[in-house]
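re: ur question from yesterday

yeah so i grabbed the chain u mentioned. its 221 aa long if i counted rite. heres the sequnce exactly as i have it in my notes:
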Amino acid sequence: VIDPEVIGPKEVSNLHAMGYRGLKIIGTARDYDCPDYMPAYGRAQDLQMPILFHMGVIGGGLDYSRTHPRRSADAAQAYHRMMAMSGMLRDVSASRMNPLHLDTIASRFPRLRIIGAHLGNQGNYEFAASVARWRHHVWFDMSGGETIERHAVERNLIGVEIGIEKLVWGSDCGMDEIKEHIDRFDAIYDRLELDEDQRHRLWWANAAEIYGLEEPTFAEE
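ran it thru and got these structure tokens back, copy pasting raw so excuse formatting
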């Protein structure tokens, strides 16, 4: 994770020299497409380092769509822990982490490989679909848990609103939960009746091309 407030082109080059091959950005002090952040993005493009951008509200703590301190002792404990830490929270705003910011960045740096997390996140799906539709080097990952997975199916985000080639699988969980996530996506792909090529692209090929592990393929004219 880098903070473009303090990480510029030189630092990006240093990270690449250390062996890092991708960057993540989350919780910035200004909009992702702030002009002051552009030099870092430009250096990442030059070094062929993909950037993963968190999208939308930062989760964690309590998921009030599933539980509430009134109903669960575990939720009550989590609430009290969060309140005890409330004085330590930094300045974060979901409005600074919008898929439309990726359009600005992709237009400025058309060779920079960009991944937006969580299908853009709740409230941003249409923005994400619009950017993925028109910007060649912008993809969205499908991480974020069961709510986002349900929305992906209900709103036809996988292969309809967002093309198969513009999506990648993501876990966003601990290693002990990976199998559960894989099983859920296998069930989703079955429900959507995806063929083997489409599944291969979502599980591997799209991400492999983003990170330079495989060469992109193009149809013959």
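noticed a couple things. The chain has eight helices and five strands. also Residues 9-58+90-210 form a domain with the TIM Barrel fold (CATH 3.20.20.140).
anyway ttyl
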